[in-house]
Amino acid sequence: MGNYAIETVGLNFNFGNQTIVKDLSLQVPNGSIYGFLGPNGAGKTTTIKILLNLLKSPSDQVFIFGKEINSNRIAILKRIGALVEQPAIYGHLTGKENLVNRCILLGIKKAKADEMLSLVGLAEAANKKANKYSLGMKQRLGIAQALISDPELLLLDEPTNGLDPNGIIEVRNLMIDLATKHQKTILVSSHLLAEIERTATHVGIINKGQLLFQGTINELHLLSKPMLEIEVDNIESASTLLIKQGYEVTTKTEKVISVLFVSSQKSGELNTLLIQNGFTVSSLYQQRKDLENLFLDITNTN
Ligand SMILES: Nc1ncnc2c1ncn2[C@@H]1O[C@H](COP(=O)(O)OP(=O)(O)OP(=O)(O)O)[C@@H](O)[C@H]1O
After folding, report:
1. What CATH number does the domain containing 127 carry?
2. Mutation test of ligand 1: which of 45, 49, 188 has the most ligand atoms closer than 8 Å to its C-beta?
3. At 266, which CATH number?
């Protein structure tokens, strides 16, 4: 378990007689940005609360930093920062005052407040009242609060929810900085694959409390089979010719025929075949199913 900041082993969790998390085995590598993806109601927040021991897991199913959570609660929680739902910010205090309060509460030296404001890019807004902050700034202040005790692991539940495009970019860049320059491990939940795709190194996809995919972003990409898209005149007869020659035509629109991509050489041969038979090929390109569609496939078919 040494390589994982978080490991759950067949985790199960019920609210009453409703199963919310089922046989969930997460493996979050140290130093990764782990995108925890799933549609609304999939069980992401519940899982994050379990990882924070806010909801109690059965023993020997949740390990953080290699240690069982229920029997090492305090020692583990000292090393985790979290932002779950709304950040707890006092609007009538400045950003800096909010952080200084947190320092006093945790017995950390107050200088840490300035350090964290710079880290999340709020140094210039340090003395502005938090209720004058944009949503993105509030979210970054929330992340600064979570970071103040210098945790190794950050759990962020939908941190870009409700943010405008600028706010999303701010939070996204901050996560990348924290992982690459400050060696934090980050688990970030989202229901939007496009959001996760831009930051995460690893992905876990859940639906109805069950893990449907877990791996690196590249492994997720590999799941989507590459296609060869051919723009050609006279689609119907071109398609008939290709099928006759043994090509697997998967879809056909008014302008484009899609066949499974095999190799560059095969694509060249296909091009020659069409041209020799009098067709005009205006374009030939390799395309992967985009991840958004793949995500929908994965979550719909299960
Ligand atoms: N305290 C609770 N008591 C009973 N059921 C709950 C409770 N909290 C959550 N649930 C149920 O657990 C399921 C998973 O909810 P959860 O909030 O973990 O999902 P989520 O993936 O975070 O979704 P969202 O993005 O909508 O927050 C939902 O069906 C929800 O209604």
Report:
1. 3.40.50.300
2. 45
3. 3.30.70
Residue 205's Cβ-count burial label (10 Å; 0-12, 13-18, 19+) is buried
Q: List, in sequence order, every residue forming a beta bridge with 67; answer none if it has no partner.
A: 64
> Which ipTM was obtained for this model?
0.94
Nearest to 289 by CA among 225, 229, 222: 225
Q: Are 169 and 182 part of one and the same domain?
A: yes
Q: How far apart are CA 100 and CA 81, in angstroms?
A: 16
| Whether 238 and 205 share a structural domain | no
Is 44 found in the same domain as 157? yes
Show the domain range for 41: 4-222
State pLDDT tens for residues 46-86: 999 999 999 999 989 999 999 999 999 999 999 999 999 77
Q: What is the pTM of this model?
A: 0.79
Ligand 1 interacting residues, C-beta cut-off 6 A: 15, 20, 38, 40-46, 191
